[in-house]
Specification:
single chain; mainly alpha; 80% helix
């Protein structure tokens, strides 16, 4: 049985991971296309990342979310769900690997963000064994992030190299394989944020 604090931390981790996914997808898509991310959307994402990150940081240091903090977060929830749905809906698995590089990189960065947040959470809750295991995953994730960066940079120059193509294919496969789980997690966030256990 988890505590209300743990449930809220889980909700915030999920929210941050989706925001990171959207932010990196926009940035990587623009990089591959030789363009700049939309500044208005970028500002919106950065604003939400700051808001959610502030709440996560407060909870890691032992504070709980008061009603004002919850009120600040609640408007984000339906938007995040819609954005994640759209992110997967618009993904074209038949497109060239170059065109899918941003989708793969977004998944890698989102997973990296989640693992780091879960590690911080385990440390804050005094779960030493779990924190040690997650630290190993953080170190492994660093290699995947390097792969994602290389794949996007290679794609920005034209058709990705053979190595970059392998990275993209692997990252995209992982992203597609986790679609159902990720959508289930984001569906549970409103309940978790209130400190309650989702039904089912």
């Amino acid at each position: 049985m988890t505590s209300p604090r743990e449930r809220r931390l889980t909700a915030l981790i999920g929210m941050l991971a989706v925001l990171q996914r959207l932010y990196v997808f926009d940035a990587a898509s623009a990089r591959v296309a030789g363009a700049e991310p939309d500044p208005t959307r970028r500002a919106v994402l950065e604003g939400w990342m700051e808001t959610v990150g502030k709440s996560f940081g407060a909870m890691i240091h032992g504070q709980d979310l008061d009603e004002d903090a919850l009120d600040a977060l609640r408007p984000l929830l339906p938007w995040l769900k819609d954005e994640l749905d759209l992110h997967y809906l618009l993904h074209d698995s038949s497109a060239s690997l170059r065109e899918q590089a941003a989708f793969g990189a977004a998944h890698v960065y989102s997973s990296d963000n989640r693992i780091k947040a879960e590690h911080a959470c385990a440390q804050a809750l005094g779960r030493t064994e779990q924190a040690d295991w997650l630290l190993q995953q953080v170190q492994r994730s660093m290699g995947l992030v390097q792969q994602a960066n290389a794949a996007v940079e290679s794609s920005a120059l034209g058709e990705p190299s053979d190595e970059a193509a392998r990275f993209i294919s692997s990252h995209v496969q992982a992203a597609v394989g986790e679609e159902s789980r990720l959508k289930g997690e984001i569906d549970a966030v409103p309940t978790l944020l209130e400190g309650r256990e989702p039904l089912g």
